[in-house]
Amino acid sequence: MALRRKFTFELPEDSYWNESDSNSSGLFDDLQSKQLQARAAVDNLFGGEETPKPYVPPQNPSPTPGNGVPPKIDVRAAAASDKANIRLTDTSPRASGKIVDDFLNMKFSDSVKAAPIMQSAPSVVSEASASSLPSEAQRLDLDYNRLRQEHRKLKDQHEVLRHERFQPLTIEASIKRMLQGHVVPLDGYRSLRDKTLLLKQAVMSYDTNTIFKIIIFLERTLKENIFFKVMDEQKSACRVYTRHLQITGEWEKMNKFLRGVGQYQHASVIEFESTRKYKKNPDKRVPLLRTMLHGSFSIPEMKFEARQVETLMRNYEIQLQMEKMDAGGKGEHFRKFPKTCTLIGLPALSTLYYSVMYHFDDASTSSASLPSVQTLIRFNDRLAMQTIVSALTRQSRWPDIDKLLQPKTITMTFSAAKSVFKGKKTTSKWGVSINNHNLLTIIRRSHPSPPTDFIYRILKGESDAQERLRLALLFDAPEMVIECMTQKGDRVSLASYAKSLKPNSVESFKAVAALNNPSIKWK
Amino acid sequence: MAPGTAELEIDETLHLLRMLMQREFIHYLETLPGTKELFIDKCLLRPLDMIATSSDMKRHGVKRIMHFDLKKSPQVWNLEIDQRVFFLRPNVDNARKIVEYAEEANDNRSICVIWCNRQLEECDLVFESSGVIGNITQLSLNMCLLPLESDLFSLQHVESAQPDLFSVANMFVALQNLYGVIPTVYGLGAEPKQLWNLVHTLCSSNELRARPDQPISHLFLFDRQLDPIPVLLTGASYEGLLHEFFNIDCGKLAFPVDMRKQVPAGPLDFDWLEINPEEDEEAHLQNRGDVVKLDNCEDIFASIRNKHVTAALEFLHAKAKSIQKSIEKSAMIDDVADYRNFVEKDLRALKKDHKHCELHINACEMMMNKVKMEDYRTMFKLEHEMLLGTVTQEEYFDFVFERVPMRSCRDIVLSMMSLASLKLDGVPDDTYNEFVEMYLQKYGYEHMFELQNLRCSRVIYARRHTTQDRTISERAKIWDTLARKFRIVKGNEPMDMSNPSDMSYVFGARISPLLCKIVEDTIDHGWNQSEYERILGKEKVLVEENTYIAADRRPDNRTRKAIMVFINGGITYWEVAALRLLAIQKNFRILICTTHIIKKRDYLGARAQDASSVFGL
């Protein structure tokens, strides 16, 4: 701060410097001619090569080593201006010998380019003036020149400082400084061209933090549509920005942005996602979904997704009805399997499971019954089947499962007929849609202790003997294991298996009996 | 194995990085005046363990060390604490929580945050908008390569779809500052090229010098995007399986308590109730047993970690028998002096071995059991056939769709679908539609967002998407060409699993990890620059020579220098095992470095949640 005040020439006490430069006072008018004469003399002396030129600010100064001051350029510039000016001041005709000396010194220091000794020009000057013992007029002359020179130096310095302060760095330099973790003021970049370049350069740095800084700056200073246009050209910048919006949870803004850069499909999904917070609150969500269906989901690319949203709405419908119906939670099923939470907002398959769990015996006209759920939501057959089996297993309704597993029961024929009608898939797939491994896994996972004869029956249905043995071992059905092994005539494995069984249990007796049975043909 | 002397040297030298970080951390603690309370992000606890001990911290004024919990509100300041220091990952949630803390603090109490890896603008914005930015001292600490093992180093990044190149580049700058310029650098993929550019930008102010004692001769930089297959497959090396099932964190693992139970406890696969992931996590945490350190210091684990799990189990059984025998033998000792000698010397070691043996046998059996239950065998077969191209698609997708309604198989479903997407370059349209429909019906329509993100991340997509956007299939094409060039997928060739002859053993002798195969090819034949440029395009291949040895010359193991393999975006334990085998086979020292150890679930999870994926990779 102190530095700045020192160089502010607008202050009244400094105003002298501003004026004195432009118009030279009449008192020293003739001095100019004297100087010119002196200069001519010196020129003659040295063959006119070294004509001092009027001061031109250095265009592209290279920084001198050894300067501790931050604005390196201006000291060098000042030094350069000193060199030019010293010649001027010392060219009084009588002191020509001294001048020559000085000049020679100058030449010397000129050739030794990097010499940092030129830092304080005034001292050089005063040295010269003291040694030459000048008259009063000459002293004035010298003083004037010295001061003028000093002023010029300070002014240059000021110019450079002001340049540094009020002119932005080059874009490359800014980005580089940012990468190094410095604070860089971006307010200097006001033109759109600068901003675009800034973003481009940031993207080239591959550093997400730098890119983010620039994006935030652009977002703050540009109108929305222009901001989107600038962003649209830099995909990785879009990425950083979207991620930021996601983290801060600004879905609205993200939706707008995605539309702004032409990602309509993604924007629709984002819009859908932003209704997630109303998951348990269909009163708020369903109207939103309805408007969405007419709005962003109505484009042809989103047809498939739109269908899903429609299903979701129907799912809510069923769930609301079921909740209303079971509000009291009375009934045998609820006593056996207490309902712990609300159904609303759960996935469609949960609705199906719930229906099987609590409303399997309802009349098919009831809105909660399995057929009516399946008419409203078209479930994937395989998915539905597995879910129904699981729910029935949980309730230990083995006969119902049996019925279900027989091909062409009522529920299945219904959906099968539908698929035939659509001409999509053949109904023959139905019989194998749930393989035995899978079926057993489901049963095992859904029931703590399924009856052994039921598992035995399923295993019996497995046609591949190898697979049957594997499954029997995996799902722990000793009877079937013994049967398989005796069938194969594998005495060694059976013997070892018998050992692993609990001694004195029914199974181990059976195994021993099989081993002792003479009618079996062992290998 | 590589000779002992060279090994020792490298072990000690790469320690410099860690020491640097340790010094910096201690320095930060020293510069903060007064008594301190240290709050640590949960994911930084273990890494910090490797950097500074608690006695170190105590010596520098840390009175208490606590977890930084996002759910808890800030506690009242303890009277004797002057300063609260936070060691956190830079993210918005953490920053918001810090604001709460800052609002609580009064004038003579101060707050300092040490961000690992760097201070981010996002957090600054949170502080600024809450008006606390001046009240918080912010420092940053760049994570170094933490040695998980003498040949495995990790930066411990958090899985994310947008990798943090900057801190990786920073690490490489530090590495080269300490050890000199790495002579030869190879890179494949877009990210390595960007990464190395960034390294150069960050280095531009100080010229790095080449040093003759540089311990690393070659550096391979890979992009995870180049080969996502190992992440999607389930391998068979013991350590990898442990990570997949129980999650190894920074070289440590908490085995579950109820490992002996046949059926893993957990929510039912089929139920209409929804699982609350938080509750699930809580149950998981309660089920955690003691934390075991897994490294080469423990003999049993050291000998089985890279083995095929069947070979490992065999080994364990044999070991158990031998331990039993030694104990039995002790019963026959008659001489009292001998017996005392035995008790003093051997008994303890035997007991320890016995305990470890039991632990690993239990773990093995539990995993094998799960593998059987979920019908992994069929899955392996189908996955292999899919990559080989001989599978009937109907069979493959039937298997997948059967598993959609089972909650416990969710990862399998997603990984198999993404495998199919990559190999077939988009699954057939109606298969995709059916899958999406089923998935939404099972897991809720809210997952439309996730499936959309997975599609944009090019993980699971349909064929129609590739016709809309040609760039999607680029990755699949590159992978396919490289896979064919290196013959990654093999037929069913028998291999002795206890003594594997090829890297493919990690995937049951059927599939080799592509990136490891590239390293092997370079060791054997030198770097094939023009070939890679032809396949990947010029802008995705990086070669840098900082030495007079030409870059296409193959590495020479007589120079006793290490090869560093860095995979940006995470490495799997399967690849680690493969590279270890390669190091033994070729008699090279291979330093395996990565941003983090990756896991199937995290990989898919991070991509499913990333809405920004729509702008490409």
TrEMBL record, chain A:
Specify whether Coiled coil is a keyword of the entry.
yes
Q: Which biological process terms from the Gene Ontology are attached to this UniProt entry?
A: intracellular protein transport; vacuolar transport
Compositional bias, Pro residues, is annotated for 54-64
Q: Residue ranges of region Disordered?
A: 45-69
> What InterPro entries has UniProt attached to this entry?
Spe-39
Compartments it resides in? Cytoplasmic vesicle; Early endosome; Late endosome
- The keyword Cytoplasm belongs to this UniProt entry's keyword annotation: no
- For this UniProt entry, what's an example GO CC term? late endosome
Q: Which residues form a coiled coil?
A: 137-164
- Keywords tagged on the record: Coiled coil, Cytoplasmic vesicle, Endosome
Annotated PANTHER family: DEFECTIVE SPERMATOGENESIS PROTEIN 39 (PTHR13364), SPERMATOGENESIS-DEFECTIVE PROTEIN 39 HOMOLOG (PTHR13364:SF6)
* Listed name of the protein: Vps16 C-terminal domain-containing protein
Species lineage, top-down? Eukaryota, Metazoa, Ecdysozoa, Nematoda, Chromadorea
Automatic annotation (TrEMBL), chain B:
Report any one BP term from Gene Ontology.
vesicle-mediated transport
Q: Name one Pfam family in it.
A: Sec1
Reading the lineage from the top rank, the first entry is Eukaryota
- Stated family: Belongs to the STXBP/unc-18/SEC1 family.
Instruction: Write down what this protein is called.
Output: Uncharacterized protein
Source organism per entry reads Caenorhabditis nigoni
